[in-house]
Amino acid sequence: MDSRAPGLPPSLTSATFPATFPAMTQPTHPSSPPTAAVAWIIWFSIFAGLFIMTIIINGGVSFAKDSAEPSLWIILVPSAAAIASLVVRFFVIPKLPDLPTKFPAMIIGLALAEGVGILALFVVGKSYPQTQLSLLAISVFCILCHAPVYFAAGKPSTYLR
After folding, report:
1. Which of 124 and 45 is assigned the larger pLDDT?
2. Quick count: other Cβ atoms within 10 Å of Cβ 36?
3. Burial of 141 (0-12, 13-18, 19+ CB in 10 A)
4. Measuring CA to CA, how many Å separate 88 from each of 27, 73, 75, 104?
5. pLDDT higher than 90, residue 151
6. Is the pLDDT assigned to residue 158 strictly greater than 50?
7. Where are the strands (E) in the chain, listed by range?
8. pTM value?
9. Is the pLDDT of residue 120 over 80?
């Protein structure tokens, strides 16, 4: 009897491929909840990354005046992302019951906060340096708000934690 699966070349026998594969959706070991160290490392990486991108991509911060009035969408889109980030931080995260459910919310909030800075660097550009600086400051503020102080063990979840 041929032990090969139909359509496989003769060089690929059952010795190379096991008859059954472990289920891809089932973890082989239970995952542990994220620790405070992991949350702080991710937070610091995003925080430092924003400054590194500002220095490397933008060549630093410019304090010059805007060349013209920026369009409304340049202000509204990053503002909406910043507000959504703060809503996640101060209204969603405190209501989540445990750390494994708070961790993805923290990542989503940090992504929205850093998105403000990325929009400032790539979309606003150097033609609106005051607007760019303002959006970078808003992004830094939102990222600072997402510092994972609520990952401290044994602390109750409050709006500030």
Report:
1. 45
2. 14
3. middle
4. 29, 22, 20, 11
5. no
6. no
7. none
8. 0.74
9. yes
